[in-house]
Amino acid sequence: MDRNTVLQRLAEAEEQVVLGAHNVVRQSEVVAQLERDGYDTSGAQALLIQLEEARALHVAERDRLRKEAQSQS
User: Fold this and answer.
1) How many C-beta atoms lie closer than 10 Å to residue 62's C-beta?
2) What is the residue extent of each domain of the chain?
3) Are 23 and 55 in contact (CB under 8 A)?
């Protein structure tokens, strides 16, 4: 992959990491609110787990792209 493509994908991955962190925080707040209100949180918890897993994948891809960009500099 050429350096410009790597840098473009890295920028996109950085955005995904930030968005993923925001989504995890927001869903954690939803789970906490549901718990406080006495509702079943199983669905919200399942979504939170999926968001955390997706975020971890984005972080791994970002880190991989960072290493690739560094090796090309």
Assistant:
1) 20
2) 3-68
3) yes
